[in-house]
Amino acid sequence: MKKLLLTIISLLTSFSLVACSSSIKDDDVVATVNDERITVKDYRSTLRFYEDYMESIYGKEIWDTEVSDGVTYKEEFKNMILQQMIDMQVIYKKAKADNLLPTGVEVEEAVDTLRANIDGDEEFKKKLEEAGIDENFLIKQQEMDLALNKYKKDFDTKNEVNDHEIQKYYDEHKDEFHKNERKVSQIFIPTVNPDMTPYNEKQKEEAKKKAEEALQKINSGEEFSKVAKEYSEDVQTKDLGGDLGYIKKDTTPKEFDEVIFSLEPGQVSDVFETEQGYYIVKLYEVIDEQIPLDNAKEDITNILLEEKYVKFIEESSKEANVEIDEDIVKKVEF
Which of 37, 110, 196, 217 could form a disulfide with 222 if both were Cys (CB 3.0 to 4.6 A apart)? Predict the structure, then answer.
C-alpha cells in the first residue's frame, strides 16, 4: 500500500475532487508557468492527496506545528507543493523542446503496469475512484512522469563529474564513507501488547523472568541461536536464531545502540530493557573501516549529479515566466 501510494504521489499534479469554497472557483488560476496554468482544482487536489500521506506518517497534528516564527507547517507545505508543481511544468517544457517526450507505446505500457498495481489494491483503488482519477488522467500523468525521467537521464549524460569534484566531496564528507557496523543477534521478550499498551506488573515480572532464564541457558553453554529460537518472541528473527544482520550506529533505540556498540565479538550482553521489552544480544562481528575513494566514486558521482540537477531546476524555475496569485494561494484550503 505504502509503496503504491508513493508511486502515485510522484505522478500527481492534478485530478478532480470536490467543489471549491465560495470565495474561489475550481478554474481560478493559482499560477501560470510559461503560459501553462495551475488551477485551484489542480492545486487543492494535489494538496489533499499529499495530506493523506503526511497524516499517515506524522498524524493530523503536523499541520499546526510551527516551523518558524509565526509560520505553521501547513503554510510551508502549501508553498512547497506549489513550487514542486511549478518545477515539474518547467522541466516538462524543456523535455518537450528537446524531443524527450515518451512514445505512445511507452505511455501505454506504463499505464498498464500502474493499472495492474491499482487493481491489486482494492482500498487504494477505491480512494482513487472517489478522487475522480480516470484513464485520461493516468495517461496524462504517466506521460509527464516518463518525460521528466527521460530529461533527467539526458541531463546526467551531458553533465560530467570530474575527479577533482569527487575528491573534494570525499574529503569533506568522510564520515559518510566510514563504515561502522555490528553483526548481532537478539532475544526479545516484549513488555507491551500488540496495541502498544504496557504489560501490567505481573506480566512484566514474568517477561523479565523469561529473559533471565534464557540468559542463564546461554551462560551455561547453550548456543545463542538455539536459545533464541526457543525464547525470543520477535516473529521476524526468532526462526533465524535471532539474527539481525549488520546494524549501523545510531539506527536503533538509544538503549540498544549503547549495548551493541559496547560489546566485543563473541560477547553476550546482560538482560537490558527498552520501552518495548527486554533484550539479550550477542555480538558476532565488528566492521569499523573507512571506505576507499575508489569504492565510493560511483555513489559520489550520483550525489553530485543530483546536486547539479536540483540546482539546474532551481535556476530554470527562476528564469521561467512564472506568475503566482498569492491572494488565491492563501484562500485555497485542504
Answer: 217
